[in-house]
């Protein structure tokens, strides 16, 4: 399995709806892991505010109710990977972002990602050292549960209906399914080599998983909890985001130090619908070569670490 390279920018969004021609609005938050800080970017005027932290934040996430920003990472005075006994922290900031966190909660081992439940009462943090998701009750500022997962859990997402968490287990090549009510793992889906992050279609019928060692996006049917296909993307895919209308999935390709990313792929809806475990064979061409649109095609474009796919 390839070593994960820390991403320099991991994003959380608090955006107003905009059209393609409208001026951007809303706020973007970034986790600056190597800079031990988080940044707030106001899209309307491009202003940036950066706040230094006592952690190296690997991930930030706006709470479901939009009132808080959560950040997880290792304390800068601890090692990057501990012995499973401490050094990680969950820091919670009130929005609008002002400065210091309103609460700091210890994480038993090495935290990767964080999300909240639909009511923003619970925070779920992946803990790679202990192969678990740690659960925190924000009102009481205490940890209330440890949920065992596969090996090296990393990215996680809440299903659109708020009932389930999907967790990418990097070293066991699987996705854990966690029931949010019982706080138990209720299933584990075999997906492929080195899954890093997951995402959902807006209707909840399909989930996506980035397979970093396969340069592919895995497609999961949530009703059957089975992998139904894979779509090739750029090198070392990490994050993904499905558009609300279900037409596209954006995939950020991290690349590597020797082979950086820098490609965007587009897949038509019909092609992803045909992917059932054997990949997708489609016509492809370089963007700089002018050609007329071809139905059911894949396009490659040279750009900055982003792939996008038409989803089902």
UniProtKB/TrEMBL annotation:
PANTHER family: DIHYDRO-HEME D1 DEHYDROGENASE (PTHR47197:SF3), PROTEIN NIRF (PTHR47197). It holds the Pfam family YNCE. Transmembrane segments: none annotated. Residues 111-241 form the YNCE-like beta-propeller domain. Gene3D superfamilies: YVTN repeat-like/Quinoprotein amine dehydrogenase. Keywords: Signal. NCBIfam families: beta_rpt_yvtn. This is YVTN family beta-propeller protein. InterPro entries: Host-pathogen_enzymatic-act, N2O_reductase_N, WD40/YVTN_repeat-like_dom_sf, YNCE-like_beta-prop, YVTN_b-propeller_repeat. It comes from Vogesella indigofera. Residues 1-22 form the signal peptide.
């Amino acid at each position: 399995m390839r070593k994960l390279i820390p991403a320099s920018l991991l994003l959380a969004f608090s955006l107003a709806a905009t059209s393609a021609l409208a001026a951007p609005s809303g706020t973007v938050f970034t986790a600056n892991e190597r800079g031990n800080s988080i940044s707030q970017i106001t899209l309307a005027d491009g202003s940036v505010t950066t706040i230094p932290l006592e952690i190296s934040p690997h991930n930030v996430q706006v709470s479901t109710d939009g009132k808080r920003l959560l950040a997880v990472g290792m304390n800068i005075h601890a090692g990057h990977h501990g012995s499973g006994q401490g050094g990680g922290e969950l820091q919670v900031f009130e929005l609008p972002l002002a400065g210091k966190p309103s609460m700091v909660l210890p994480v038993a081992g090495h935290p990767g990602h964080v999300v909240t439940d639909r009511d923003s009462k619970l925070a779920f943090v992946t803990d790679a050292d202990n192969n678990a998701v740690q659960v925190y009750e924000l009102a009481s500022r205490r940890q209330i549960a440890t949920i065992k997962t596969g090996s090296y859990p990393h990215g996680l997402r809440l299903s659109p209906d708020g009932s389930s968490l999907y967790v990418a287990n990097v070293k066991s090549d699987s996705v854990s399914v966690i029931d949010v009510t019982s706080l138990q793992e209720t299933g584990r889906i075999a997906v492929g080599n080195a899954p890093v992050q997951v995402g959902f279609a807006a209707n909840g019928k399909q989930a996506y998983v980035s397979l970093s060692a396969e340069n592919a996006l895995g497609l999961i049917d949530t009703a059957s909890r089975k992998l139904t296909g894979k779509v090739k993307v750029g090198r070392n895919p990490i994050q993904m985001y499905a558009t609300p209308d279900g037409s596209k999935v954006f995939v950020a390709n991290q690349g590597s130090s020797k082979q950086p990313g820098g490609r965007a792929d587009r897949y038509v809806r019909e092609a992803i619908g045909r992917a059932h475990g054997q990949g997708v064979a489609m016509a492809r061409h370089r963007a700089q070569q002018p050609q007329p649109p071809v139905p059911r095609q894949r396009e490659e474009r040279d750009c900055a670490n982003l792939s996008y796919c038409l989803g089902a």
